[in-house]
Write a structure and sequence with these properties.
InterPro entries: MYG1_exonuclease. This is UPF0160 protein MYG1, mitochondrial. It comes from Araneus ventricosus (Orbweaver spider). Belongs to the MYG1 family. The protein is an alpha/beta fold. It has two domains: about 140 residues, no CATH class; about 110 residues, no CATH class. The strands form two sheets. It has a five-stranded mixed sheet. The chain has a three-stranded mixed sheet with strand order 1-3-2. Helix 8 links the parallel strand 4 and strand 5. Helix 2 packs antiparallel against helix 3. It is elongated and about 80 Å long. The mean pLDDT is about 95.
Length: about 290
């Protein structure tokens, strides 16, 4: 291991974590750092892998350079947290054997980034495999996905925040209950923003429904707000008796003209007009 002393940067080997000389390993017995232990402003408590260590020290600069933003900007601060929570954190957890939950899984996921990288290892049946070539393929895979997430959050996700904030602030103009918001310009990545904005804007009555135009089909959609960003449980699902119905059958059952469909689970529906979508929300809020 003497060769490591001559390296400019050492990652994931060497049993040393010392950013002053760019050593970023997490395998040593003494290592037990999380994002929170390195910076108490951060809430994440999953033990860091070398990926998380490198991200902790260089993530702000990387994001700023890719998106051409000032490194100390509020945008970079928000994106740094988002990329860690939704990309790097699971790499840290999987590398350290941290399960996503304490209960028994109903199924396992085998298509996450870590498993796809693992599949690039040479097969045990290969003779004289080119390990360097396999490593380079893995680097390309991870780089592409990492850049994709940064560009998504920076160019698609973050710009939606102002749209969601405006919709939340104007919710009482949609209906006096304040439980319906309208994205008049079309759908956008709204879920995570909504939960954060409800808290920061001190929304007292949780928002139940989102309506927005389906610009492709020139119709309107109504979507239920889930109890958490990645939950399949809704705060309030569309009327149970509508679920799985379409067209005229749904019109008759609901008493609302222009209905297109309601999903079997009741989390989303469609109507030909904005007024129709709004009525679907109101009838669910106030069933007769």
């Amino acid at each position: 291991m003497d060769i490591l002393k001559d390296c400019d940067i050492v990652v994931d080997v060497g049993a040393v974590y010392d950013p002053s000389c760019h050593r970023y390993d997490h395998h040593q017995r003494s290592f037990d750092h999380t994002m929170n232990t390195l910076n108490q402003e951060y809430p994440w408590t999953v033990k860091l892998s070398s990926a998380g260590l490198v991200y902790f020290h260089f993530g702000h600069e990387i994001i700023a350079n890719i998106l051409k933003l000032p490194v100390d900007s509020e945008e970079v601060k928000i994106l740094y947290g988002r990329v860690y929570e939704n990309f790097i954190q699971e790499i840290d957890a999987i590398d350290n054997g941290v399960k996503p939950c304490d209960s028994e899984h109903k199924y396992d996921i085998h298509t996450h980034l870590s498993s796809r990288v693992k599949r690039l290892n040479p097969s045990w049946t290969e003779t004289n495999p080119d390990e360097t070539k396999c490593f380079e393929k893995a680097c390309q895979l991870v780089e592409q996905e990492f850049l994709d997430r940064i560009n998504f959050y920076g160019k698609t996700w973050l710009p939606a925040r102002d749209i969601v904030k405006s919709a939340v602030q104007n919710r009482f103009s949609v209906h006096s209950s304040g439980e319906i918001i309208d994205f008049a310009s079309g759908g956008c990545p709204w879920k995570e923003h909504l939960f954060e904005l409800e808290e920061s804007l001190k929304v007292e009555k949780p928002i139940k429904f989102v309506i927005y135009p389906d610009t492709v089909n020139k119709r309107w959609r109504i979507q239920c707000v889930s109890v958490a960003p990645f939950s399949f449980e809704n705060r309030l699902s569309l009327c149970k008796e509508w679920c799985g119905l379409q067209g005229e059958e749904l019109n008759k059952k609901s008493g609302i003209d222009g209905c297109v469909f309601v999903h079997m689970s009741g989390f989303i529906g469609g109507n030909k007009t904005r007024e129709g979508a709004l009525q679907m929300a109101l009838k669910t809020l106030n069933p007769e």
